[in-house]
């Protein structure tokens, strides 16, 4: 099985040929609801560590672990997210995997650490299942934003589907939860001096909007992160059943954040005039993308920016598998 795996600070996204999964990057103690009418599925790992992962951990766990530091790839929490993603993609008791994943550009020097953690055999038991054994035979770690470019350039068999974009000079703006990665690529090769990251992300907007709501609408400070994101996208939220218009505060919040990204990208890419295209991706691309695109005439938000990196990783895994089979 070929897998594209994007383990971010905010959420895990994984793609195979016929399946896409995502869940929050949260690991907690293994409590769950005693009764549920909707048959909610929770991810509880029994082995190697007894933990709950994803949305169930956010809702039910008494103690929650969410890390946002460089060394989290070496932590038990990161490994639990990795194993949970594999169990979401496959129920087989044994499977051979080829995985492509990514790292933020600022932490790309740690790629061998990630590769060493992923390669080899992994045994996991999820609640309600037998032990599963996953053997990773091949692993590539690439700069995180590269995935979105590969998603736009490759088809589902890993072949070049957009030769113009593949042969061109492209900038990628990957807006994550905590940081925004800026990647410059020419003919599918990274241009290191024009690649950097900015300490601006979607959670800056989420925190600002949550604070604004808490000051004016008591009780709305309890909204979950994804509910605040939905409110920002829809420009409205309900308060005791009545709609609250958020357009003004959303614009007031997002424009300055987008301006910081634009300023960094403009300086790094000399205004962007020498680039053939600029792709905007990442979960935060849904929020900041329209504002960033106003400043660059050749910029666009990619299709399905939440899954774009993971999709590109999977298509590269497909390409590597085809090459290995020749």
Overview of this protein structure:
With 326 residues, this protein is α+β, with helices and mostly antiparallel strands. The protein is built from 10 helices and 18 strands. The strands form 3 sheets. Strands 3-2-1-8-10-9-5-6-4-7 form a 10-stranded mixed sheet. Helix 8 crosses helix 9 (285-293). The longest helix has 22 residues, at 247-268. It is globular, with a radius of gyration of 20 Å.
A few lines on this structure:
This protein has helices spanning 55-60, 76-89, 111-118, 146-153, 163-166, 202-216, 225-234, 247-268, 285-293, 308-324; strands at 2-7, 11-15, 20-24, 27-28, 43-47, 51-53, 64-65, 94-103, 120-126, 131-143, 169-175, 180-186, 189-190, 196-198, 236-239, 242-245, 277-281, 299-301.
Question: Which features characterize this protein?
Answer:
326 residues, alpha+beta, ten-stranded mixed β-sheet, 10 helices, 18 strands
Fraction in beta strands: 25-35%
**Overall morphology:** globular
Which range best describes the helical content: under 10%, 10-25%, 25-40%, 40-55%, 55-70% or over 70%?
A: 25-40%
Order of helices and strands: EEEEEEHEHEHEEHHEEEEHHEEHEHEH
Number of helices: 10
- Mean pLDDT comes to 90
Widest sheet: strand order? Answer: 3-2-1-8-10-9-5-6-4-7
* Quaternary form: single chain
The residue ranges in which pLDDT falls below 50 over 5 or more consecutive positions are: 34-38
End-to-end separation in angstroms reads: 17 Å
Structural class: alpha+beta
Number of strands: 18
Sketch the major β-sheet: 10 strands, mixed
The radius of gyration is 20 Å
